[in-house]
Design a protein that fits this description.
Elements lengths: L3 H7 L2 H7 L5 E5 L2 E5 L16 E4 L4 E4 L5 E2 L1 H9 L3 H8 L18 H17 L4 H16 L6 H19 L2
Antiparallel strand pairs: 1-2, 2-3, 3-4, 4-5
């Protein structure tokens, strides 16, 4: 099942409003771009006279100053359709591009550490041209460890970096 976060990222609240025939008024108020009458059936008994719900397209979120409803696309759909969470997820899931489900959703990666290791090897090769065969052999061993490392395994990447630093210092500090 596709997560709520993924749907909120790819499904625009303004598209949902259009689907339900909700008239949006352009505004420029802080983070908000649009306002409309709150579509929640319980909001003032469904008879709201002035717009109290504001939408931020930048954050793809909404907030109703009348009933305090807020959230992303999933919550907005639930309010508009008067449906439950599971129904909203099922209906909105086809709107998420299929390739989005395969994108890494990790906040941190070890890429900067691995680039640092690569730079150490490059510098060692520039400074020690007579020892390129040994450096290449060490690089192959390190590459095998990197191949088995997970994208977000920062601790292992840091340990590998310290290990490479120590081996290179030991070899070239004499």
């Amino acid at each position: 099942m596709i997560s709520k976060e993924l749907i909120n990222k790819y499904v625009q609240i303004t598209d949902i409003a259009e689907e339900f025939g909700i008239r949006l008024e352009s505004i420029s108020s802080g983070e908000f771009d649009f306002k409309c009458k709150c579509p929640a059936k319980d909001h003032k008994g469904g008879s709201e006279r002035t717009s109290s719900l504001c939408i931020s397209t930048k954050q793809n979120s909404f907030y109703c100053f009348g009933c305090n409803a807020s959230g992303g696309a999933v919550n907005f759909y639930m309010i508009c359709s008067d449906s439950d969470f599971q129904t909203a997820i099922e209906i909105l899931t086809p709107s998420v591009p299929s390739e989005a489900t395969f994108l890494p959703q990790r906040k941190q990666s070890n890429i900067d550490i691995l680039i640092s290791i690569s730079n150490m090897f490059r510098q060692s090769m520039l400074e020690n041209k007579n020892d390129i065969k040994w450096i290449s052999s060490l690089m192959e061993k390190v590459d095998k460890k990197i191949d088995n490392m997970k994208f977000d395994d920062i601790d292992s990447a840091n340990r590998l970096k310290v290990s490479v630093e120590n081996v290179l210092k030991q070899r070239y500090s004499e």
